[in-house]
Specification:
The protein is an all-alpha fold and 305 residues long. The chain has one domain (7-299): ADP-ribosylation/Crystallin J1 (ADP-ribosylglycohydrolase fold). It has helices spanning 11-30, 37-44, 65-80, 85-97, 105-117, 138-143, 149-160, 167-184, 188-202, 219-232, 236-244, 250-265, 272-277, 280-299.
């Protein structure tokens, strides 16, 4: 593994890139969420600007549940210094009580169960392989970027199972987290192909040669589109434009691709026009949370040799 102390970008630049990459991917993709590629081409030719609108009728720079739940999870971690299931579920419940602009059905059911029972974990569901836990997982990566992998995976399941409990979804989300931590360490180019291949070997449904267009909220279709974008595009902007113009659940594919590409290429790789277009409060919250999580991560770190 490359020594993070010698990383030319540095951990802060990668962490900020991941957080702001998530938010700009969310904001960019929300405009074309639930549209087909043909509909996107008809209305936008090639969608590449943060302009708001879409089915949610967002103002330019606004984000959706992907970014909002990420920040809620991060706040719960910062308040406790760790990932604690009841604190995470409470943070999600408070977020839902604030009447967010959008909320997925599986997320709503999980939070509603927590309110009824006090239990911050849903039962395993063979039909519950949605992308809602993966889209918000970024704080887990920053918290554990230097910690042993078993901590990363334990924390991943603690937060995921508040609303989503499915082995296929767990595997996809955990692969994304392992990819982010590799990128934060400056090791994306070497490790990402192997991590994706390992996922495809364990769950062959993730492997496909078909272009992932109009991806649904099923985690498999989501990550097929994201991985294809990461493999074929050459820089942050190309990756995001490729992924969101596939349509479907474009805010979430954009958010996941953005956090991965941002961690790999750093904050300066995100087009300045996109960063400026983000809602100012969201941008500042992402920057503040990224830095705060890195501070806590040092307490959980395995010392470098």
């Amino acid at each position: 593994m490359p020594d993070p102390r010698r990383d030319p970008l540095g951990i802060e630049q990668r962490a900020l890139g991941a957080y702001l990459g998530l938010a700009v991917g969310d904001a960019l993709g929300a405009t074309v969420e639930f549209m087909t590629p043909r509909e996107i081409a008809h209305h936008h030719q090639l969608h590449r600007e943060i302009i708001g609108g879409g089915w949610l009728k967002l103002k330019p720079g606004m984000v959706t549940d992907d970014t909002e739940m990420t920040l809620a999870l991060g706040d719960a971690i910062l308040a406790r210094g760790e990932v604690e299931a009841h604190a995470v579920a409470t943070a999600f419940s408070d977020w839902m009580r604030a009447k967010p602009v959008d909320i997925g059905a599986t997320v709503r059911r999980g939070i509603s169960q927590f309110r009824r029972t006090g239990e911050p974990r849903v039962a395993e569901n063979p039909h519950g392989a949605g992308n809602g836990a993966c889209m918000r997982c970024l704080p887990i990566a920053l918290l554990n970027w230097r910690a042993p992998e078993h901590r990363l995976l334990e924390d991943a399941r603690t937060q995921a199972h508040v609303t989503h409990n499915n082995p296929q979804a767990d595997a996809g989300g955990e692969t994304v987290l392992r990819m982010i931590t590799a990128a934060l360490r400056g090791d994306a180019a070497e490790r990402w192909p192997g991590l994706i291949a390992e996922l495809e070997q364990r769950y062959p449904e993730y492997a496909t040669k078909r272009r992932g267009e109009n991806p649904s909220g099923w985690i498999v279709e989501t990550l097929q589109a994201v991985f294809q974008g990461l493999e074929t595009a050459q820089n942050f902007e190309e990756i995001l434009v490729d992924v969101v113009n596939r349509g479907g659940d474009a805010d979430t594919t954009g958010a996941i691709a953005g956090m991965l590409a941002g961690a790999r290429y750093g904050v300066d790789a995100i087009p300045e026009r996109w960063r400026k277009a983000l809602d100012g409060k969201v941008r500042k919250a992402c920057e503040k949370q990224a830095r705060a999580l890195l501070q806590i991560a040092e307490q959980r770190a395995t010392p470098l040799p």
